[in-house]
UniProtKB/TrEMBL annotation:
Residues 452-699 form the EAL domain. Gene3D superfamilies: 3.30.70.270, 3.40.50.2300, EAL domain, PAS domain. GO terms for molecular function: cyclic-guanylate-specific phosphodiesterase activity. NCBIfam families: GGDEF, sensory_box. It holds the Pfam family GGDEF. This is EAL domain-containing protein.
Length: 699
């Protein structure tokens, strides 16, 4: 996990779907937020590798072994630790002599990171933490290697193009000098200067001071001031110069860098401007380089937030650059890079184009839409694929994969944006069987399960476009079934057709301050549906779950009043607003005032997860509560007599306060039989009726 706010992306291979809840609860108690995918066959594993994972936990598979998993990881070239859980029947005796036939020897030989017994959850937690740390270190090391390589390339480009005279010396003799240095001292080639003592370029009158200057630097490693001296050219002419020295490395070996300026030609401001321009320019394509792009991306994201404008980031990768380089050499790959740069500059003339890497480009396009930029990108790939590139007497062709990430006011940081575009370009090759030659637009709905930021953007889009799906689950009234009652749930559709549950997206909505807006959307749309239902089924009521933000929102009672009026009035009390017990406890004074206001507007109020705290009953002394829904921990196992007695006690106490009780989570006939006998007025659960898109009462 590269950031503390990120969730662990855990891929589990097991035949039991129930393991997901167990692992999530286990990791959650240890402070490790987790997004889990469970699979058990080879085909699902191949699909899963299209996404990014942090750890694979292998337990058992339908048609796949952990050996298959290791081979898949190696074939994909992934850095992905695998933890293998073995049954408790396996011997874990550390003193046992190792052999080639032992499960541990075989697993570690194949590259498995850890082998553990299934009955040791704390060992599993420690192993996951360790493997995450190791993975993060490896990822950081790779990033640093890339940065170092990029810095070295920039340095060499700077030296080659710099108008400043630069040389490297080792033990007092020249080992390298750029063109400006040779020109300054009147030498035609580097060969003339290699091996020449640097003191040969210093006038005799300054020689002693120059040697002292070098001695001070050699001893202290610091250059406290510039050294002014008279330089001697190859033809014997002289000029006044200023010398700066500092540490450097050449071909991996430490040395001293010398920068010399002709005093008569020094122009500091112009030099700085030239250096800044050179440092941000790619010499082959004349496009901005990666450094310039990174600065521009930060500025673009800031503008998107400040001016609420939409931009697009395109990451373009040349598909067959390896084949081109192998068949035509450096000349062919350079010509290909230049041709692609030329077409990108032509196609996106109103944009900022950059050469990001050896065979990759980045483009920042202002004021665009997903539809528009996708069309332009597709046209670009087609133009590039049709282009003929001449290399001497040969003609070659190439294709590109373009990944697109939109930049808006809710977009993540620059690093994540670049990652989105990069992964989208990589996805083109996955979709086209490694060929590429296409585009892929990053879709938050496809990544909401793996990224909190993507989920945030999907939530924003769902609120804006009304993409949430409302579900209704009936609640059985043991005393009166004339007025059907339904609990309302919000579901979030994903791009792959799956549906995300509130316990997955509500934490993200809470983190980004979206709960109040989501509550209001649910209230408004649930009431619209209720109004239509009342025409055919008068007396229908809805139980609507609201967040802590709504419990504190003093303007919400007025909205609720308008909604109840719009659906036909408050006489039948059509709305029951439900809040979590922990929220009511934490905001007791505000809760008391707002609940009183809700009830005055004709709404009833319910408390969810009742019994989850030590002082649950005291809430009834402070708040006007119509209904309580008993916490799941009491009712999920009613075969336990202790739970049965606890529920009976809660029901009796709540009823004595004048409030009603709901027992939910009834999922089998035994639980139904027990719940019926406990005196609760309302019963609910999958055994009675599953949630559905319509308000259908099957009682």
């Amino acid at each position: 996990m590269s950031r503390k706010s990120e969730s662990l992306r855990l891929l589990v291979v097991d035949e039991s779907p129930a393991i997901a809840d167990e692992l999530t609860d286990l990791l959650k108690t240890q402070g490790i937020p987790t997004r889990i995918q469970i699979l058990d066959d080879r085909e699902e594993l191949e699909k899963a590798f299209r996404h990014t994972w942090d750890i694979i936990l292998f337990i058992s598979g339908y048609d796949i072994s952990y050996e298959d998993v290791m081979r898949q990881i190696q074939s994909h070239g992934l850095d992905l630790p695998v933890i293998l859980l073995l049954s408790d029947h396996t011997s874990f005796d550390l003193n046992q002599k190792e052999s080639a036939n032992s499960p541990f020897f075989k697993a570690y030989t194949l590259g498995v990171s850890d082998v553990l017994p299934t009955s040791r959850p704390l060992l599993l937690i420690q192993s996951i933490r360790r493997e995450l740390r190791n993975l993060e270190h490896r990822r950081n090391e790779r990033n640093l290697e890339l940065l170092l390589g990029d810095a070295e390339r920039r340095s060499q480009l700077f030296l080659k193009n710099s108008k400043t005279a630069v040389s490297y010396i080792d033990e007092g003799v020249h080992i390298f000098a750029n063109e400006s240095y040779l020109e300054l001292f009147g030498y035609e080639s580097l060969d003339e200067l290699i091996g020449m003592p640097v003191i040969d370029l210093v006038d005799s009158k300054d020689l002693m001071e120059f040697k002292d200057f070098l001695k001070v630097y050699t001893k202290t490693g610091r250059n406290v001031a510039d050294f002014n001296f008279c330089g001697v050219c190859a033809d014997g002419s002289r000029f006044e110069a200023t010398l700066q020295i500092g540490p450097a490395s050449f071909e991996g070996e430490p040395c001293i860098q010398m920068i010399i300026q002709h005093q008569a030609k020094a122009n500091t401001q112009l030099l700085e401007a030239q250096l800044a321009a050179i440092e941000r320019l790619d010499g082959l394509t004349n496009l901005g380089n990666r450094r310039a792009f990174e600065e521009a991306l930060e500025a673009t994201r800031d503008n998107a937030i400040k001016f609420k404008q939409q931009y697009a980031l395109l990451f373009t990768s040349i598909d067959n650059i390896g084949q081109i380089s192998a068949s035509t050499g450096l000349a062919g790959s350079d010509a290909t890079v230049q041709k692609v740069a030329e077409i990108l500059s032509s196609q996106f003339s109103n944009a900022q184009n950059y050469r990001f890497g050896d065979s990759t480009f980045a483009t920042l396009v202002p004021n665009t839409s997903p539809e528009s930029i996708s069309a332009y990108a597709q046209a670009t790939t087609e133009q590039i694929s049709k282009s003929l590139i001449s290399i001497g007497n040969r003609t070659i062709q190439t294709t590109v994969s373009i990944g697109i990430a939109m930049i808006s006011e809710t977009s993540p940081n620059a690093t994540e944006l670049l990652s989105r575009a990069f992964n989208s370009a990589d996805k083109v090759k996955l979709q086209n069987h490694g060929i590429g030659n296409g585009i892929n637009l990053y879709n938050p709905a496809e990544n909401a399960s793996q990224s909190d930021q993507a989920l945030r953007e999907l939530l924003e889009e769902a609120l804006e476009k009304g993409n949430f799906k409302l579900m209704f689950q009936s609640i059985y009234d043991t005393r009166n079934d004339a007025n059907p009652l339904f609990e309302v749930y919000a579901r979030l559709p994903l791009a792959d057709g799956k549906i995300m549950q509130p316990d997955e997206f509500m934490p993200v909505a809470h983190r980004y301050g979206m709960e109040s807006r989501l509550d209001r959307w649910i209230l408004l749309n649930a009431c619209k549906r209720l109004k239509g239902q009342l025409a055919a089924h008068p007396g229908t009521r809805l139980l609507i779950n609201l967040s802590s933000d709504s419990l504190q929102d003093t303007s919400l009672p007025l909205l609720v009043s308008k909604l109840t009026t719009a659906i036909g009035g408050a006489e039948n009390k059509p709305l029951i607003l439900q809040f979590n017990e922990s929220d009511a406890t934490n905001y007791l004074k505000l809760a008391r005032d707002n609940i009183h206001a809700f009830r005055e507007k004709g709404c009833q109020v319910s408390i969810n997860n009742f019994g989850s705290s030590m002082n649950s009953m005291s809430l009834l002394n402070h708040l006007e509560i119509d209904l309580v829904k008993i916490d799941k921990s009491f009712v999920q196992d009613l075969s336990n007599e202790e739970n049965v007695q606890a529920v009976k006690k809660i029901t009796a106490n709540v009823t004595s306060h004048g409030s009603q009780v709901m027992i939910a989570y009834i999922e089998n006939p035994t639980a139904m039989s027990k719940a019926w006998s406990m005196g609760a007025r309302y019963l609910q659960g999958y055994y009675l009726q599953m949630p559905s898109e319509d308000m259908v009462f099957e009682g």
